[in-house]
Specification:
about 0% strand, about 85% helix, elongated, mainly alpha, Dbl Homology Domain, Chain A
């Protein structure tokens, strides 16, 4: 496998991570931070819910971890530095694990807020998206990590000086993924059902809103 192929994949990973971090930042700035002002009864009630509060705080933690990972990859110029970025990021996957076991309960709690939540979110989010979809997007992103990091290591030419470091980093990363996957397996079906239910609720709510 040529170094060019590996470098192209690394560039794709950085591009993917850059978009993800940007999307998280937009949601934090547009939705979460104004909510944390607690300047209305609706906002206070939302944050008093333990599931919603925990989920949003973990969302911010994931943003910080992924932002650091992105910066490390962008600054890496050797295989050893890339390997170090992967190894340092691996423990942060536990935050995804915590988040993904909280998010279904948080989304169930969101259903209590109905129209007030819809009206608040409509001023923060892009047309056609929902808070629920924004929260669930983190699982879809996490799901791609193992394959991408594995391919990055496999595309590293065997003769490269840092190949041993890359192989070690992959083992650390795979072990972290194994622990996360074990915790979220039971959540996968719940998440899929929630996606379908929330889309149906969103369509019904927006139809009602337009009629009124």
């Amino acid at each position: 496998m040529s170094a060019d192929n590996r470098d192209a994949l690394l560039a794709d990973i950085i591009k993917r991570e850059c978009k993800f971090v940007g999307d998280l930042d937009n949601f934090i700035v547009g939705f979460i931070k104004p909510l944390f002002n607690r300047d209305t009864p609706f906002k206070r009630q939302m944050l008093e819910d333990p599931y919603i509060g925990a989920c949003l705080n973990l969302y911010i933690d994931i943003y910080a971890a992924c932002q650091l990972f992105l910066s490390s990859l962008q600054e890496a110029s050797t295989d050893a530095q890339i390997a170090d970025a992967i190894s340092q990021f691996a423990p942060s996957l536990s935050i995804f694990s915590q988040y993904l076991t909280e998010v279904t309960s948080a989304i169930n709690s969101l259903s209590k807020f109905g129209r007030p939540l819809f009206e608040y979110a409509s001023g923060c989010l892009a047309t056609g998206t929902t808070v629920e979809n924004e929260l669930l997007a983190l699982q879809q992103h996490y799901a791609g990590y193992r394959e991408l990091i594995t391919q990055l290591v496999f595309r590293t030419p065997p003769g490269n000086e840092g190949m041993a470091d890359m192989a070690t980093a992959l083992k650390i990363f795979e072990d972290a993924c194994d622990m996360v996957d074990a915790r979220i397996d039971d959540e996968t079906v719940k998440v899929q059902l929630l996606l379908l239910q929330q889309q149906c609720k969103f369509n019904l709510l927006i139809s009602t809103y337009l009629i009124v």
